[in-house]
Write a structure and sequence with these properties.
The protein has a domain of about 120 residues: ANL, C-terminal domain (GMP Synthetase, Chain A, domain 3, 2-Layer Sandwich). It is about 30% helix and about 25% strand. It is built from 21 helices and 30 strands. Strands 12-11-8-6-7-14-15-23 form an eight-stranded mixed β-sheet, sandwiched between helices. The structure holds 5'-O-[(S)-butoxy(hydroxy)phosphoryl]adenosine. The site of 5'-O-[(S)-butoxy(hydroxy)phosphoryl]adenosine (WT7) has 21 residues, from helix 12, strand 20, strand 24 and strand 25.
Length: about 650
């Protein structure tokens, strides 16, 4: 396998100083598999418990009775673990550095003491709005410190937060408010990003028209820009915070009480509400943050994700704060005011660990090395990537130009469902291979299965679908309100295993390479998108009769969104209509779902039973139509010729 040609072993210094070196990894990994109960019992001590647990793992993957419990009889509070327990030792240490969109605006340094006061105030405001233990609160905020206060305030009083990425549309927001039956939506007036501003409150107003009248809206002032106000429904955070008490005792939550719901795309229909609970999630987020990034006391950690994604939950808020770190919240984008912004921020705040997505690396690589070279990046020690496979060219640039060849790159493979990293090289332990997620984290047992027979493929090298045998503490517990869908999605195709939805290769050295999704989920700029969601948005347009959506390779985004659209009889296929459909999808779902290419399709390739043959559509979108495979089962093979003839990607 040519991919394994060049490897990058850790420097002697890194191997000697890291939490985990090669020998320790092997020993700890073996121990974690041999006796998971003993291993995770010990790790359970990373968090402070109000009632100590006596049970560790209680898991059943049997279809029809799937249950996942960790530390079930313990009680704890996630907010107390992220704040209160650090107050004595590091009350005056910076917990959060807020770096605003506009570099002219001052950064804020929020100490653990201040974080405590702000979180308690927010918690008391929520209580006054009627939020109690078990209630849901939707957070629709920009990347501002109040987003972290809101998360931790919910955790403090036992409310379940569900963050909706601020780039999502009013419709998407309404669906999530209704799906989780939230009592309160927390939003801001406007969200500055990349020098532009999104009217978040206006979006929330539109969404709330489609929600129950009892839903309240707590509004944080970010820009002071214009908003409309509904008396009795809208509440002014900045006014209320003045009078709110800075004390709020943390609730003792059961380890298996939900901490948050996060909606994510699946291969069918509506996004699903992934549920994470408290005890196991906190243990896993804290451990992976410390070990994967070789985080040490005093380090400044920067994950560039948005708190609207799981990466922001685990590696901006819960993991770093549980470990008493200084974590950066960045409101902006990599290219504003110019392509040196990331590196300027690294220099300014002396960042030690930097964690971003391949799509950002590719975009910045395209702007040239000068933007990187003008910044002093000597504080960087470990680099990380997440969200999609990284191509070797981008990996090499990240390694050479950003890391100066000194910084190991942890290519972390995981999912919203997994709560934290499942596979990654460790900085002091593994000889990295560009593009490989390398090794399982402690307690993780990856298996590669033959897709149709579900037979486990032994030996190396092999390629197939990636499943995980057995559980880990950070695993999702259910889909909100639909445990049956949970079982069906993750435990029915490959009985006895957690099915990841990804394909993978294990090379001759036993290292893992993620090859991408094997279902109808695509990965656009590291954001997960169900092709079915884009299709249903398209067919909701009056002029569209039918639509089929597939991914295709895109230089910057990893995958682009390719739409085949059949119009209603009599509609003209014009460029204006293309634009209209593009904007339509943006308003239905959000800008991240913008179609890249729309091809007019007089007909779609279907089997005689009416099933769309996506394999063919994928090939055409990839501009790889020379080998379409067997098309003899098509009802009308001639539609394929038309689609090839008029393909958009050439
Ligand atoms: C899907 C999960 C987990 C945080 C970000 C995305 C893909 C994720 C990698 C990686 C190759 C990756 C997978 C996975 N993915 N990380 N390092 N290498 N692929 O979370 O939105 O839940 O998406 O992202 O396909 O299944 P998500």
């Amino acid at each position: 396998m040519s991919q394994t040609a060049k490897t990058y072993p850790p420097s002697a210094e890194m191997a000697a100083s890291a939490h985990v070196d090669a020998a320790k990894y092997d020993a700890m990994y073996a121990a974690s598999i041999a006796d998971p109960d003993a291993f995770w019992k010990e790790q359970g001590a990373r968090v402070d418990w109000m009632t100590p647990f006596t049970q560790v793992k209680d898991v059943d993957y049997t279809l029809g009775s799937v249950k996942i419990n960790w530390y079930a009889d313990g009680t704890l509070n996630a907010s107390a673990n992220c704040i209160d327990r650090h107050l004595e030792k590091r009350g005056d240490q910076t917990a959060i550095i807020f770096e605003p969109d506009n570099p002219e605006e001052d950064a804020q340094h929020i100490t653990y003491k201040e974080l405590h006061a702000k979180t308690c105030k927010m918690a008391n405001i929520l209580k006054d709005l009627g939020v109690t233990r078990g209630d849901r609160v939707v957070i629709y905020l920009p990347m501002i410190p109040e987003a972290a206060y809101a998360m931790l305030a919910c955790a403090r009083i036992g409310a379940i937060h569900s963050i909706v990425f601020a780039g999502f549309s009013p419709d998407a927001l309404a669906a999530r408010v209704n799906g989780s039956e939230a009592k309160v939506v927390i939003t801001a007036d406007h969200a500055p990003r990349g020098g532009r501003s999104t009217p978040l409150k206006t979006n929330a107003d539109q969404a709330l028209l489609h929600c129950d009248d009892s839903v309240k809206c707590l509004v944080v002032k970010r820009t002071g820009g214009q908003t409309t106000w509904v008396d009795g429904r809208d509440f002014d955070y900045n006014a209320l915070v003045e009078g709110a008490s800075a004390d709020c005792a943390p609730e003792a939550m059961g380890a298996e009480d939900p901490l948050f719901i996060l909606y994510t795309s699946g291969s069918t229909g509506q996004p699903k509400g992934v549920v994470h609970t408290t005890g196991g999630y906190m243990v896993y987020a804290s451990m992976t943050h410390e070990i994967t990034f070789d985080y040490k006391d005093g380090d400044v950690f920067w994950c560039t994700a948005d708190v609207g994604w799981v990466t922001g939950h685990s590696y901006i808020v819960y993991g770093p704060l549980a470990n008493g770190a200084t974590t950066i919240m960045f409101e902006g984008v990599p290219t504003f005011p110019d392509a040196s912004r990331f590196w300027q921020v690294c220099e300014k705040h002396k960042v030690n660990q930097f964690y971003t997505a391949p799509t950002a690396i590719r975009a910045l690589m395209g702007k040239g090395d000068d933007f990187v070279k003008k910044a002093d990046l000597s504080s960087l020690r470990v680099l990380g990537t997440v969200g999609e496979p990284i191509n070797p060219e981008a990996w090499n640039w990240y390694n050479d130009v950003v890391g100066g060849g000194r910084c190991p790159i942890v290519d972390t493979w995981w999912q919203t469902e997994t709560g934290g990293h499942l596979m990654t090289p460790l900085p002091g332990a593994h000889a990295m291979k560009p593009g490989s997620a390398m090794k399982p984290f402690f307690g993780i047992q990856p298996v590669v299965l033959e897709p149709t027979s579900a037979e486990q493929l032994e030996g190396n090298p092999v390629e197939g679908v990636l499943c995980i045998a057995d559980s880990w503490p950070g695993q999702m517990r259910t889909i909100w309100g639909d445990h049956e869908r949970f079982e069906k999605t993750y435990f029915s195709d490959y009985p006895g295993y957690y099915f990841t939805g990804d394909g993978c290769k294990r090379d001759e050295d036993g290292d893992y390479w993620i090859t991408g999704r094997v279902d109808d989920v695509i990965n656009v700029s590291g954001h997960r998108m169900g092709t079915a969601e884009v299709e249903s948005a398209l067919v909701a347009h009056a002029k569209v009769a039918e639509a089929a959506v597939v991914g295709y390779p895109h230089e910057i985004k990893g995958q682009g969104i390719y739409c085949y659209v059949t119009l209603m009889g009599g509609e003209e296929p014009t460029d204006e209509l293309r634009l209209e459909l593009r904007n339509w999808v943006r308003t239905e779902i959000g800008p991240i779902a913008s179609p890249d290419l729309i091809q007019w399709a007089p007909g779609l390739p279907k089997t005689r039973s009416g099933k769309i043959m996506r394999r063919i559509l994928r090939k055409i979108a990839e501009n790889d139509h020379s080998t379409l495979g067997d098309t003899s089962t098509l009802a009308d093979p001639s539609v394929v010729d038309d689609l090839i003839e008029n393909r958009m990607n050439r």
